[in-house]
Fold this sequence. Notes:
The structure is a homodimer. By secondary structure, chain A is an alpha/beta fold. Chain A contains 9 helices and 13 strands.
Amino acid sequence: MDAVKPYVIGVDLGGTNTVFGIVNQRGEILFDDSIKTQAYDTAERFVEAGVACLKPLIEKAGGVENIKAMGIGAPNGNYYTNAIEFAPNLPWKGVVPLGEMFSKELGIPVALTNDANAAAMGEMIYGVARGMKNFIVITLGTGVGSGIVINGQLVYGHDGFAGELGHVTMVRGEEGRPCGCGRTGCLEAYCSATGVARTAREMLAKTDRPSLLREIDPEKIESLDVSIAAGKGDALAKEIFEFTGKMLGEACADFTAFSSPEAYIFFGGLCKAGDLIMKPIEESYNKHVMKIFQNKAKFLVSGLMSMNAAVLGASALGWEI
Amino acid sequence: MDAVKPYVIGVDLGGTNTVFGIVNQRGEILFDDSIKTQAYDTAERFVEAGVACLKPLIEKAGGVENIKAMGIGAPNGNYYTNAIEFAPNLPWKGVVPLGEMFSKELGIPVALTNDANAAAMGEMIYGVARGMKNFIVITLGTGVGSGIVINGQLVYGHDGFAGELGHVTMVRGEEGRPCGCGRTGCLEAYCSATGVARTAREMLAKTDRPSLLREIDPEKIESLDVSIAAGKGDALAKEIFEFTGKMLGEACADFTAFSSPEAYIFFGGLCKAGDLIMKPIEESYNKHVMKIFQNKAKFLVSGLMSMNAAVLGASALGWEI
């Protein structure tokens, strides 16, 4: 009976750190700890270190008999295969059956999904999407990811890889920017943190207009620098956000033609710019979307943007097993 | 108990004709009849005529006590409100609560959805999508419509208007063709029957190349003429289909990034061109889609493309009530 197993483990497996947390049914993280993801050159060693890190947390929670299950959010995590598949930014290549590996070591069920899906699950259970049955989470980080919820369910698609909204084509033909996925013109190539930095370099090179960003070596500009400059009222930095927001709004207008969600929820470093990015997104969206959809969708920033949020999102997966 | 109500009514409400059919649980249309949609200037008169048309069919079926429910597929039909909302090609303006109106007259539950959703429902229960839980039906007619099934459920979205894939933007900026929806660059502006005819006119005007299509007054060219010419091996007509298929393939590549369906099912007059249109779609799709999705999705032509298919699709809705 679930009542005798009051906790789940949530795991936020990121490119740098992996955080483990013991979570209760109210969404409180009781105990947590982390390891360095990149320090383990094989998945076996990583699992070994993860289990060693978890053991004391599990003991504090009264032993494994109190743990219902574990949920993992990881880049390129496939819910159907319970494996990480061909993640470009992790040290382990190919298909890594991480769910099964942890399950075998810990003796509890383990579910795994990609990080954006975990974020969507977290928003639905603990965040701004509580009570919503149709919404889309868009993560603006190193890449652009997405978690799509339709009829109250995460969309995994036929093969488990649905929700790659960072890779819809926004600029067709030869003028599209190259994308990390090997194609060109993807949303991610423009609206990820690296995309924003590239837009900054392009805009700086194109004109002589003064900007706080000129104090930085162009090759070292990061999206955070653009945020800081825009926050100080720098006109060029604001235009960079307007360009980025305009494209995100156009993309969302297309997504609405697909699933007409109640809300778009943005997650990740870029959102910290607040209205500087959110206003252009919403304005562009309402300008480009079909008339029947105008001024209906909400544009929200995640309320779960601490490191622990990803753990919560992943833990939500554990309750579903 | 359902066992004592062995039939449903399926209604295909089109811009020209409205077909009523009595359908059994095996998907056989036992009795059917039709009225002219445009002959009734108010929805009240249309419902009156519809009920008069249905009465003898219902009697043949042994009376209304044998009818479980009625399902209607109609342009701009909204499943949530049970109404036709602002349909540009129907004589009745504004919001028409057609479901409720028929239900009151007939004394049975009535569900209503848009025509493309009804087609998707028909494919899932009676057609090539039997056994599939994730697929997208794309209707290529006067417009481009879509019915999306995810996790075995039709996608209606937050407001009932999801699945408007004819109105994703394929050509951004000023060079986009004007679309009937008031925006520019929509998929529908290029890949509907009228879009294909326009492509034909543009291609004929651009060059002096010989083509069977030059025998027709350019203003009177229809997509069927292009089909016939392509079927005879006309090179220019084939290029028109290649252009159309290429864009549909690119659009489907974006749709896959969203929901990664098992299959795309094409429905409507244009599909009668067979490989001439289907091959370019599939080739373009596999060229433009993300690597992880390549050569996975099936590209199928509906097996239900008779007039009765739409009735079957709508009737499927009746079983779900």
